[in-house]
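Sample pair:
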Amino acid sequence: MPAKFVKLSVLFPIIVGILLGSAFFVLGYTQDAPGACAIGLALAFGLTMLGIRNAGIIKRGLLAPLLLFCYATATIILDFALLFDNEFGDSPDMVFIGLALGAIMIAVGVIVLRLRKKRTK
């Protein structure tokens, strides 16, 4: 294992992300609360990505757009899954809230990438 991965700034967010994400996921599963499960997955993913960025694999300035793109993808996919499961009941138009949030996250990610590209020129 390379030495850049055996640092506290790399391992701490990854370990904390796994522990907190697992705790939220188990709590949500046992209490039948899918929101807590989603928070656990998002927390584990975000903190793990922070640890990976601290290792130098992801360049500085690319973590936020990468997280936004991943969370936007998950939001859009989950909205369609809920729509097809008929979880919205009598108001299927509520799926547009999630789709709008996903589109906003993608737009912000693109804007951040374009601003970063202009600064590096």
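Helices lie at 8-30, 34-54, 63-84, 95-120.
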